[in-house]
Each structure stands twice: as C-alpha cells, then as structure tokens.
Amino acid sequence: MRRVLACLAALALFLLTAAGMKNAGVLAQSCRSVSLRYRQPLALEIVEAAQGKQPGLTFWCEQNATLATPWRQAEATVLYYWGDASLVLGRECHTGNPPAPLDTGGCAVSTALAWQLFGSEEAVGLTLCQEKAEYTVRAVFESSEPVALLPRQDAAFTAVELPAGEETAQDPAAWTDACLVKSGLPEPDWRLYTLLPAALARLLTLLPLLFGAAVLAAALARRAARLTFPARDLVVFVLLGAAALVLPAFFSAWPSWLTPSRWSDFSWWSQTAARLEEMGKAFLTAPAIGRDLAVKTGLLKQCGLAFLQCALCEFLRCRFRAADKQLPRTVAPVRAVCYNGTDEGTAD
Questions:
Q1: How many Cβ atoms from other residues are within 10 Å of residue 223's Cβ?
Q2: Which segments cross the bilayer (predicted)?
Q3: Domain-by-domain residue ranges, the chain?
Q4: 79 beta partners
C-alpha cells in the first residue's frame, strides 16, 4: 500500500509540474510589455505626437458597447486599440490570427461573443458592426466573457503598451523613463512591469525541482562525509559539476536587474527594495482591465501549484527516508523435532 501511495504521489507531482510549465507559458505569452495606465484619457494630440516620435507604441482602452450582425446583437466588453493587437490580447487565438497593426478593418472576438453573434465559434471571415463601422473577424480567442478587440484611432485611450526589448531586462524602470522622454507621454499613474510576473512564474516552476535537488545533494553530502579520500572528493566534484550545470538555467529565468553588480553596494539593496514595493503596489492597486485579471489569477494558480509540488516532494522525501531507516526483518530458522514411539520408550 505504501508503494502504491508513493507511485501515486510521484505521478501527481509529474502532472502538477506539467501543468505549472503550461501555466507559466501562458503567462509569458500575456506578459511581453511594460503597461502604462492613466486615470484620465490621453488627449488625441498627445497620442498622435507619441506615435510619430516613437513608432511601435500600442494605445488601448476598455469600454462597453453594443455589437451587431444582420441577425443578432449583443452587449460586450470592447478593447479599442491603436497598434499591435497581440500586446493587448495577450493570449493565443483559437482560430485565425490577430489583426495586423495596419489592418483598420479587422477585429478579434471571444468564443462567447462568437456564439452570441454568429451561433458558432467558426466566425473568421464574418462581419459585425459597431456604431456604423463594419469589421471583419480575423481571429477568435478562448474566453467565457463576451469580448471584442476593435481597431480605432480616436478612442479615449487610458493605457499604453511599451513592447519589451533587450534593454528592458537590464533595467526596466530606466528603460521606461527613457521611453517616456522619447515619446513625450506624461507620467503614468501606474506602471505595470508585466515581465516580472512572468519571471516569477518561471521561478515557481523551477522551485520543486530545486527542492528535490537540494534534498538529493544533502543526502549525498552526508554519505560522502563517511567515505575515504578518493571517493569523497569524487562525490564533491560531481555535486559541484551538477550545480554548475543548473545555475545557467536558473539565472536565465532570474531577472538580471535583480542581481547586484557589486554585492558590497548597500544602496543597491534599499533602492531595489523600494522599486519592488512600488511595482507590487501598482500591480495590486491598478484597475483590472483587459488581460490584468487573467495575469493575476494565473500567478495565484502558479503559486498554488508550486505549493502542492513542494508538499508532494516533502511527502516523497519522508516516505523514502522511512524506508531507508526500516530494518530488514529476519526470521530464525525452525528446528524440526520428531517424536516417535521408540524415542518415548528410550526416554522412559
């Protein structure tokens, strides 16, 4: 029975690890930019000037509107955008591809809205209307809420997406300041560094593996301490080599701006702590629009999966440790004694 429980726990750990990797991949797809949020809509002159000074910016906002087809109409959450639709959508499409940046007549709808307007998820190529403007459906994405992604250049934009580049990973705050100066945009009310939740999700995926590696390394170190000179040094060399192979994978997921250039620079620690506090407050207090709720729930899901994985790792560790401490049972040999009538007579 104990072996069955151990096998089931190992299978559950494998499935949870696969689910965690998949969830981390979804978060990485949703978090590919730095999002600037404003309480008040940006003036159209500021938006046009920023697009001219720094091409590649994506402006968007969330509103409620009525969408119609020749046969049906439905109330939906509409994401108006100007720029890259994939940065606003932040997920893979069920069918089709998001509209191109210069495609002013294409749109994307959720599966729930496709059922309400067209009676099927196969809506690519069909048309819908919104305020006398006609759009052709280019893509359908998975969502239980009626959501539409429509291009529009004169909307009341309250969010700006800065596409992440190679310089973003070095120092996202300084890179964002440089983009604000270059584009002429005003200082936002909230800065959402979405790359940080994606990196945290990848680290949480590696956490159970690091837990198991630490337990294995500790067990090998305890056994190596009882060995003689050549074998002990060989085990230590193997452990150091394994650590050297694992560290590059760990630091590839670790944000580089969280690694100090000089460990003795105490001002770096206080500045980084203040920056992380500011990022956390913005992540929690900014109004949830667009993909924000999906990112937050995905991060909570990743934390829950990591907790369950660590609990299963601890269960397996205790199970194997108890099996090692269990002494083998030995049965004393049984001596057969025969009694017959002759022996009884002799004894008498």
A1: 12
A2: 199-222, 234-254
A3: 2-26+196-312, 32-193
A4: 62, 149
